Amino acid sequence: MVKNKAQHFAQWCFLSLIFSIFTTAKALNYGDALAKSLLYFESQRSGRLPYNQRVTWRDHSGLTDGLEQGVDLVGGYYDAGDHVKFGLPMAFTVTMLSWSVIEYRQQIADAGELEHAMEAIKWGTDYFIKAHTSPNVLWAEVGDGDTDHYCWQRPEDMTTSRQAYKIDQNNPGSDLAGETAAAMAAAALVFKKTNPHYAHLLLHHAQQLFEFGDKYRGKYDEEGRMGVVKSYYASVSGFKDELLWAALWLYKATDNEEYLRYVINEAENFGGIGWAITEFSWDVKYAGIQVMASKLLNEEKSKKHSSTLEKYRSKAEYYICSCLNKNIDTKNVERTPAGLLYIRQWNNMQYVSTASFLLTMYSDFLKSSNQKLSCHGGIVGHQEILSFAKTQVDYILGSNPSNMSYLVGYGPNYPQRVHHRGASVVSYRENKAFIGCTQGYDNWYGRVEPNPNVLVGALVGGPDSQDNFVDQRDNYMQTEACTYNTAPLVGVFAKFSELEVQKELDHIQDLGLVASY
Ligand SMILES: *[C@@H]1O[C@H](CO)[C@@H](O)[C@H](O)[C@H]1NC(C)=O
């Protein structure tokens, strides 16, 4: 029987009510976490804010970005607690948001958040379209870390340099071109059905950017190119991972075998089947590539490449097993005493968030193909992988020794002094009196009081190796949040919110209540 939306809703309200009567301990609310995670991207918006902006303590900013260079670079995202628009992490953020929607579209839609997720993606891709001014020119950054960090200002007051930097054929940046191509190809898949014209446009840019990156090879952060980015977002793993990553996304988006052949032919040369790495980030994409390539093994049309794809898969398994603590001794990811994956001191949560995403997806992949994972430490089923991913997500949301949600604005206890210029200074909407560069440091940065604005949905850097977290604004290793921390969580929260709904329904069925309505 097909029910209409209102009936579904009424039924759902009734079931929720019954359920809440029968449960004492309140389970984590992943649907709420999902909705909040998407609000965060509105806080990070640069440019002219739209009429339906929900985060109302923000206002327009960066309205002359690109003007000096004669190009319109208004829009895009600030990466973290400052006001530089860094192309590489911005593109990775958009790729992960898009991947979240591609894998968990239905779950996001069921939670009523699909439109918000698509808006978050489009805010990034609209900017990439502007920044890609000709086939071999991509504007890579606006502002610079050094001058930006001298000031503690709201974005609306910004007086720092808005110098823009680009890559082109004389100053190549295959890493940046590759990641931006990946982001636009992934986003094209997101918009394919609802906005085919836009999807087509994105694909066109993605294909050109990949060609540019592949033909003019080099790292974007080299001296004489974009040395300005070196201390902030240096591409340590080089550009080979981004080229493989872009080719995979383009294959997914176009079905053009040429891209798959690239992934197969360059597998060895580009380290795709050589690197076994235990972290996945805006810089190092091998684990993501390897998981994506593994999933191709399920498709009939890629069967003829199965020997190379199997090699990709063995490295993907290395990554998954290392997170599960099931590799040979020294090849596992460390954990804090309370069980949080621990890679490094500075912004560790970014790695927890990407790992949770890949684990959740890999669990789905095993389930759908009716397979198990074989680690050095034993055979693992899809349910065990998902359960482990859940421990990480639950830790993030407050199941940890500090009872602290590291997702800002979620639950009763969360970081109050996020290292974030806009959030830590009185809202521009409330007080438009100009706040200067050092005035911000003097009057707002050093305050012990909580931030006046809550940066809802931000995932902060999180605790140290001993689960300790110090909620101070100058403790940027732990209290700063970045757009690429939250992006993978969009998919993960959607997945767990679906399971929670399912569990509640099962529970009601167990109680024999379903027959009563
Ligand atoms: C965290 O919550 C638990 C259970 O409610 C409680 O026993 C514990 O003392 C709390 N810890 C902190 C640091 O507040």
UniProtKB/TrEMBL annotation:
Family stated for the protein in its record: Belongs to the glycosyl hydrolase 9 (cellulase E) family.
Keyword Hydrolase belongs to the record: yes
Catalytic activity: Endohydrolysis of (1->4)-beta-D-glucosidic linkages in cellulose, lichenin and cereal beta-D-glucans
Active-site residues, Swiss-Prot/TrEMBL: 419
Domain Glycoside hydrolase family: 30-492
Name under which the protein is recorded: Endoglucanase
Keywords: Carbohydrate metabolism, Cellulose degradation, Glycosidase, Hydrolase, Polysaccharide degradation, Signal
A Pfam family the protein falls into: Glyco_hydro_9
UniProt-listed Enzyme Commission number(s): 3.2.1.4
One GO BP: cellulose catabolic process
GO molecular function, one term: cellulase activity
Extent of the signal sequence: 1-27
